[in-house]
Amino acid sequence: MTNPQSIEEKIVRDANYIEVLGALGIAKAFTTSGANGQAIEETADIFEHQHLDKVIFQTPAGKRLADEGKRCTKEFLARLRNEW
User: Fold this and answer.
1) CATH T-level topology, domain 7-83
2) What does the DSSP assignment read for 41-69?
3) What percent of the chain has pLDDT over 90?
4) pTM listed for this prediction
5) N or C: which end of the chain has fewer CB within 10 A?
């Protein structure tokens, strides 16, 4: 669903993207990448550039929830990089 048109499509798209952000999204990303043998640094870079920088939310509620998820994720990735 690259360009959702109906409000229902926009809600589903936003819901899928919200799951990518925040603590749950971080946990999923690192669990999957670890199982595939990917380095933490590589996972953090991919996560940041594919999920934080490129996701555009379609609904007002999605945008509001995304702001919190993006903030949480950015803070986590910054802290992770400081601890490397």
Assistant:
1) Methane Monooxygenase Hydroxylase; Chain G, domain 1 (1.20.58)
2) HHHHHHHIIIIITT----SHHHHHHHHHH
3) 25
4) 0.72
5) C
